[in-house]
């Protein structure tokens, strides 16, 4: 490998931004305010709870929905009608479902890549890490809402570009 990182196409990021805003608005009744996107350094998500989905097809990568504790609890409460007292299986299910819907909404806008999505995984706890495919530097899109911070991290690259970096 040349040591370079596979390029992340900015046009691939916008569908995740749009999908995140739409999902929070429609599924949990919460308006998000977008911050300035940036290249993620390191493997540690911004917040305590992370929903993770893998993508494969003509593009490959990973998407992470990273939420603060209060956001996760409030979003779960909005989905279930009752806010859980603490992080539990209901929160895991709700964050997994939100991540799945966000990835599915973005995937529909990226039909040219004929992608499949994995089942969501959810990690909870401070200082956890999420590994993106080697050589892909994800773009982080921070948001704020009335409940606190949210961040979507997208590491997605066209398969041809990704593998060409390993063959140089």
Structural description of this entry:
The chain is of the alpha+beta class and 168 residues long. It has one domain (10-166): Chemotaxis protein chec. The chain contains four helices and eight strands. Strands 1, 2, 3, 4, 5, 6, 7 and 8 form an eight-stranded antiparallel beta sheet that branches. The longest helix has 21 residues, at 89-109. It starts with 13 loop residues before the first helix and ends with a helix. The mean pLDDT is 87.
The number of helical segments is 4
Instruction: Estimate the global geometry from the Cα principal axes.
Output: globular
What is the percentage of strand-forming residues?
25-35%
Q: What's the helical proportion of residues?
A: 25-40%
Identify the notable features of this structure and list them briefly.
single chain; 168 residues; alpha+beta; Chemotaxis protein chec; globular
Question: What's this entry about, in short?
Answer:
Helices cover 33% and strands 27% of the residues. The chain has a single domain (10-166), classed as CheC-like (Chemotaxis protein chec).
Please describe the topology of this protein.
Blueprint: H1 14-28, E1 33-34, E2 38-39, E3 49-56, E4 59-67, H2 69-80, H3 89-109, E5 116-117, E6 121-124, E7 139-145, E8 148-158, H4 159-166
Antiparallel strand pairs: 1-7, 2-7, 3-4, 3-5, 3-6, 4-8, 7-8
